[in-house]
Each structure stands twice: as C-alpha cells, then as structure tokens.
C-alpha cells in the first residue's frame, strides 16, 4: 500500500490550539481547556471547538495518524477527525473515560453517537488510527505499535459532501494536555473490511 507523508504545514486548523510546536518531525499540540466535539445526544450541548489539522480526503483515499496521548484525565482524547461541516463529522481514536483508556469513535450526522472499548495497555504508547473512505462508507481501524489492526467502526457518510481529514485532539475537562503527533499520511482506501 503506497502512502505519502503529509507535511504538517499543508493542513489547516479548524480551531487554533492553545499551543503548537514542532519537536523534530513531530507536532506537539495542547488543546484549550474545555475543547471538544459533540452534538446534542444525551448531554444536550454542542461543542465544536477541538483543534484539528485537516486536508482534503477524496473518495477512495485513507488517512492515517500516529500519535501519543500524553494525558490520563477524564475525556483527554486524540486521533483522527473526518469533517464535512459542523453537523457531519467522525472523530476516532482514544479517550480516557472513567479512569480507563478507551478506543472508539463518534459519528455525527446532525446528532452524535459514541462507541468505545477498553485498550488500557495502549496508554503512553504510540497509537495509529486509520480512516478509509469508500463511497458512502468510512472504515476506521486502530492499533498500538505494530500490533494487528482492530476495527473500530464501519460508518455511513454522505459521499456528496466535501470531506477533509487529519489529526485532532481535545481536552474537555482540564488545561495542559500534551498530544504528540508523529505522522500524518494519505494513501489508497483499504480493499476490504477484514
């Protein structure tokens, strides 16, 4: 599978992070306290202020992001964001929830849903999240290091919308979260689900 590295400077921030700096080839991002992505479901609020560095994601392409989540407080999160507009987006990656590291995804089409599963042994390690766009669907996988890929989600999307994708992070409950993004790649969409 041929992938190409996306230079950090080619992306455009949805919201400026509180702090961002380069450390060698890596991009270190600190999101603002209270930043998040969510629309309505169960909680009743809308948050659309998590920093994401996005570039175009045409049909038949996949985005892949490597990162280390440098936090372990409630709802610290990082991964990949696919976004068409404020009401159509998918965030996928890892998030601390109730004392555990969870891998999961939120799919939003007007309102948000949420699915998670524990990945406690991934804490403090480099994680890769891959979102593969094919027609009206996105397949999201994640892994830690060189471990096997885990399917996180197969989700519908509107293929007529202009999708963009790239790394994101958020810190809904505290200040000072540090997320180290190691790589951002684009390549062909996956051939199969499994």
From TrEMBL:
User: Which is one Pfam family of this protein?
Assistant: DUF1349
According to UniProt, the name of this protein is DUF1349 domain-containing protein
- Which species does this protein come from? Kineosphaera limosa NBRC 100340
């Amino acid at each position: 599978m041929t992938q190409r590295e996306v230079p950090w400077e080619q992306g455009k921030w949805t919201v400026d992070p509180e702090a961002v700096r380069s450390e060698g080839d890596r991009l270190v991002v600190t999101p603002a306290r209270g930043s998040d992505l969510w629309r309505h479901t169960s909680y009743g609020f809308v948050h659309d202020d998590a920093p994401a560095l996005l570039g175009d994601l045409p049909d038949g392409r996949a985005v892949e992001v490597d990162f280390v989540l440098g936090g372990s407080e409630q709802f610290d999160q990082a991964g990949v964001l696919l976004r068409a507009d404020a009401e159509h987006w998918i965030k996928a990656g890892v998030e601390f929830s109730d004392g555990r590291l969870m891998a999961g995804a939120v799919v939003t089409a007007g309102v948000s849903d949420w699915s998670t599963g524990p990945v406690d042994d991934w804490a403090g390690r480099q994680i890769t999240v891959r979102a593969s766009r094919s027609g009206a669907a996105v397949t999201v996988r994640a892994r830690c290091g060189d471990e096997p890929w885990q399917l996180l989600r197969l989700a519908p999307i509107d293929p007529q919308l202009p999708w963009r994708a790239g790394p994101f992070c958020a810190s809904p409950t505290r200040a000072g979260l540090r997320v180290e993004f190691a790589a951002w790649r684009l390549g062909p969409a996956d051939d199969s689900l499994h």
